[in-house]
């Protein structure tokens, strides 16, 4: 795990407990599902947060937003669902909080930096399944990433994928140029 940790830190840019959690969740999911790192889209991850752990998940699993097999549903939860298309099964891994009485040193006596280092060390040395709850989940057929046609925004002139374009006053516009009247002013009276 240590060499993967060093690689994940290099990819992410710094060492932190969240990155260690993502590393452990990924390694556990690969083991439970009996799969290897994804070369293409054979593995899909649904991340329920946009925190540091997601970078470790990308590094370990090979799932990325660009390939369409890393999906964000940002619920702010420390949870990740891993689906194996070839095995037709999935697992959701939820990170559990570390009990406050764990650890050899009195947490009040440590600096923030020392607390982070201790948490990282604990995460990297603990048995892989410790601190994580695993739920088997139904693996719905997840459609492979789709390539959509592009259209030109008539307001800014930039290309936008067709399903992200909106029609406004008879013109095709991108989301950045779209003036969402209902979001700004509330629903119109019926």
What does this structure look like?
- The protein has 190 residues and is α+β, with helices and mostly antiparallel strands.
- It has two domains: 2-137, 2-Layer Sandwich (60s Ribosomal Protein L30, Chain: A), CATH 3.30.1330.130; 150-185, Wheat Germ Agglutinin (Isolectin 2), domain 1.
- The chain has five helices and nine strands.
- It has helices at 2-12, 17-33, 53-61, 112-125, 181-185; strands at residues 43-47, 70-72, 79-84, 89-95, 132-137, 150-152, 159-161, 166-168, 171-173.
- A five-stranded mixed β-sheet has the order 2-1-3-4-5, covered by helices on one side.
- A hairpin with a 6-residue loop joins strand 6 and strand 7 (159-161).
- Helix 2 runs parallel beside helix 4.
- The chain is globular.
- The protein starts with a helix and ends in a 5-residue tail after the last helix.
- The model has no long low-confidence stretch (mean pLDDT 89).
Question: What layout of secondary structure does this protein have?
Answer:
Blueprint: H1 2-12, H2 17-33, E1 43-47, H3 53-61, E2 70-72, E3 79-84, E4 89-95, H4 112-125, E5 132-137, E6 150-152, E7 159-161, E8 166-168, E9 171-173, H5 181-185
Parallel strand pairs: 1-2
Antiparallel strand pairs: 1-3, 3-4, 4-5, 6-7, 8-9
């Amino acid at each position: 795990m240590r060499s993967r940790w060093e690689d994940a830190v290099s990819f992410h840019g710094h060492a932190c407990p969240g990155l260690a959690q993502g590393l452990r969740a990924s390694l556990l999911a690969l083991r439970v599902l009996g799969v290897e790192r994804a070369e293409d889209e054979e593995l899909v991850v649904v991340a329920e947060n946009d925190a540091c752990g997601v970078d470790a998940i990308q590094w370990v699993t090979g799932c990325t937003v660009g390939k369409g097999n890393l999906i964000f549903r940002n619920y702010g939860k420390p949870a990740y669902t891993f689906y194996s298309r070839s095995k037709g099964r999935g697992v959701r891994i939820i990170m559990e909080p570390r009990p406050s009485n764990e650890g050899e040193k009195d947490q009040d006596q440590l600096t923030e930096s020392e607390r982070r280092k201790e948490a990282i060390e604990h995460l990297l040395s603990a048995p892989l399944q410790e601190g994580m709850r695993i739920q088997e989940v139904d693996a719905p057929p997840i459609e492979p990433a789709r390539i959509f046609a592009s259209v030109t925004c008539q307001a800014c002139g930039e290309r936008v994928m067709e399903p992200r374009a909106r029609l406004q006053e008879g013109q095709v516009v991108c989301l950045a140029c779209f003036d969402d009247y209902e979001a700004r002013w509330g629903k119109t009276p019926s």
